[in-house]
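Checklist before submission:
- one chain only
- standard amino acids only
- sequence pasted in full

Submission:
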Amino acid sequence: MNESNKKNVLLEVTSLAMKISRKYVEPYSHPKSPQKYTQSQLLTILILRAYLKTTYRGIIEIIETSDQLQKRLLLKRLPS
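Returned file contents:
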């Protein structure tokens, strides 16, 4: 298989989760919420956590080291 034909499954899962979650959840839980992260971003992080069978801290470390994941998640900063 050609290198250019290979897809990063983790990035594909991230894109799909973001797309679907935007369709079904409101951007923010409340109009007066701090609005640091959208509900779609947080839900996608939880989906990735389950997909990779890791802890919340583990998925944050993975996202921290991947610029591509941060771009797909549209993150300006990481949740703590």
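Reviewer check: The mean pLDDT is 91.
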